[in-house]
Amino acid sequence: MQMTRRSFCAGLAALPLSRPAIAQGFPTLTAQEATVQLAPDGYPATRVWSYEGTIPGPVLRAPQGGRLERRLVNRLPVPTSIHWHGIRIDNAMDGVPGLTQDPVPPEGTFDYAFDLPDAGTYWYHAHTNSMEQVARGLSGALVVEEKTPPAVDRDEVLMIHDWLLDPETGQFVDSFQNAMTLSHAGRIGNLQGVNGRYDVTLEARQNERLRLRLINGANARIFALRLEGLTGWTLALDGMPLEAAEPITETLVLAPAQRIDLFVDVTAAQGENAGLLFAPGDDSWQVLAEINVTGQASRASRGTPAPLPRNPGTEVPDVAGVRVLDMPLQGGAMRGIERGRFRGQEMDWQGLIENGQFWTLAGQAGRGDAPFASLSLGETARIRMANDTVFPHAMHLHGMHFRTVAPDGGFGPLRDTVLVMPGDTVEIAFVADNPGKWLLHCHMLGHAASGMTSWIEVT
Ligand code: C2O
Ligand code: CU
């Protein structure tokens, strides 16, 4: 296969242009401006919003059953907060301004401290004006390590980004409020990168087994991914182990905020192509991350890996007799709005659009004062999401993982973010075992900002 580097400018033409002293305490995680070379060499560096001056922020690693403690120090010119995506977390630490905490003002701090019940691949990102703050760089990986580390030769985080940069200036295109973007697919970038770099290259030897932790940190892009010179298995989705390692036979689809843990064996010999490819949408496959095969490990291939140990309290829920709550996904451009009725009632789209809202969840644009559902602790919930728009949506529940329920009653794997394609209906079920106020929203962050944000309460 011809391995071509993706081009940076492709597609841009179509896009609209437009200190206080710190008290003793936790290790800090400072949100700050920085200058980083996101674009290929030769292009200008980019002024970003970062954690600790790097893109992505530092990989935070902690053992399962341990605690994570970080003091967010806000050196940005805007208020911010951190959401620890996928962690079954203490609600007060969930990072949602106006729901679980006040936003942290410039020069302010907030102490995050919480237990880590589940091993797996998670991530953290800004959750105040996240549409803009994540697009400017505020995210990083959070790895919770299994008690007994699985047998791999290397453990690599690959955090995938989709930046929207002006190639002339190298700066982020400042179109965050663009109605066209918000009401269509969201902020789709023109430069895909991994771990903050355009040309990330990892090293490995033939026959080595790598654990690749893929995280889609993009604002809106759904990544179609393929391996080259590698063969392997999917071990976990959204942090949660699968019952058995699943051989990778086809394209992997990673919606915004989703993660996949892969175990891959390097089959390529020294000098042969190896890496992670993605489809930009024009039938080509381009290199997203390259693996430079530097030699040969003596070890022969080890066969199918054992599954990762199951996380606690993740049994399949009993949904028999549980009422199904309907959450239609409505609105958006290309006739979605015209079509959007809720329970037979016309929606006042004109009024919503004047307020910058283009989408609704269960007939409601934005979070509102009342929860979509009030659940009692321990109750099983079923939510049916019918996508009555012409765009895909990556629906994310905070605080708890769920399973999809197929029409025949079968359950999907545990996830915290599920892709709902246009015209499709996806039912999720979960046990409401984490008390608090939890968002349920689209992780295409422009959609979340323009109506697709709801919440549930567990008491
Ligand atoms: Cu990763 Cu409410 O989001
Ligand atoms: Cu959406």
TrEMBL record:
Keywords, ordered alphabetically: Metal-binding, Oxidoreductase, Signal
Signal peptide range: 1-23
Pfam family, one: Cu-oxidase_2
Keyword Calcium among record annotations: no
GO molecular function, one term: copper ion binding
UniProt xrefs under Gene3D superfamilies: Cupredoxins - blue copper proteins
InterPro entries membership: Cu-oxidase-like_N, Cu-oxidase_2nd, Cu-oxidase_C, Cu-oxidase_fam, Cu_oxidase_Cu_BS, Cupredoxin
Source taxon at top rank: Bacteria
Entry-linked PANTHER family: MULTI-COPPER OXIDASE (PTHR11709), MULTICOPPER OXIDASE LPR1 (PTHR11709:SF2)
Descriptive protein name: Copper oxidase
